[in-house]
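Q: Please design a sequence for this.
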């Protein structure tokens, strides 16, 4: 399974901010849309990632307020990224190593989407559920031992 599989299911809605935007405006957008991150873009290029983690750290440093802070002063200027072809297992490893909850998906310089740790976990669980259902269906169709040793019993079992 690859990142492109998650993006296909998730859809392509993206929320972005400009580095010069007021942090308060970015936080309002995140709250209104119930999202945990914004991709920070400037002139069509990814320049950072803003998550609630950076927002909370900024609020604490600023004495409990957002004040006149700008997105550029708070964002992660070197966000972890992946491509649509990146394997999900590699994404999980990368996110765990960096404690990243959100990851922009880039195809060259083009932003394709953002995946979250939740999206990755859901994809893995869904894949395991599908595999379990297939294995259970296979086991239900398994021929009985009597049918393997006595072909006549197999045909009488099939007629019953």
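A: Design:
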């Amino acid at each position: 399974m690859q990142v492109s599989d998650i993006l296909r299911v998730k859809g392509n809605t993206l929320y972005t901010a400009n580095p010069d935007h007021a942090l308060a405006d970015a936080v309002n957008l995140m709250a209104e849309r119930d999202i945990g991150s914004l991709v920070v873009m400037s002139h069509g290029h990814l320049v950072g990632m803003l998550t609630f983690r950076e927002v909370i750290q900024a609020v604490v440093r600023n004495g409990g307020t957002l004040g006149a802070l700008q997105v550029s002063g708070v964002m992660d200027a070197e966000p972890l990224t992946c491509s649509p072809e990146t394997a999900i297992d590699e994404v999980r490893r990368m996110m765990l190593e960096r404690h990243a909850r959100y990851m922009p998906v880039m195809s060259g310089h083009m932003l394709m989407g953002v995946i979250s740790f939740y999206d990755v976990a859901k994809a893995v669980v869904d894949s395991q559920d599908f595999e379990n259902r297939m294995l259970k269906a296979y086991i239900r169709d398994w021929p009985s031992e009597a049918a393997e040793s006595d072909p006549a019993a197999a045909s009488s079992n099939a007629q019953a």
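Q: Thanks. Anything notable?
A: The chain has one domain: 3-122. The longest strand covers residues 45-51.
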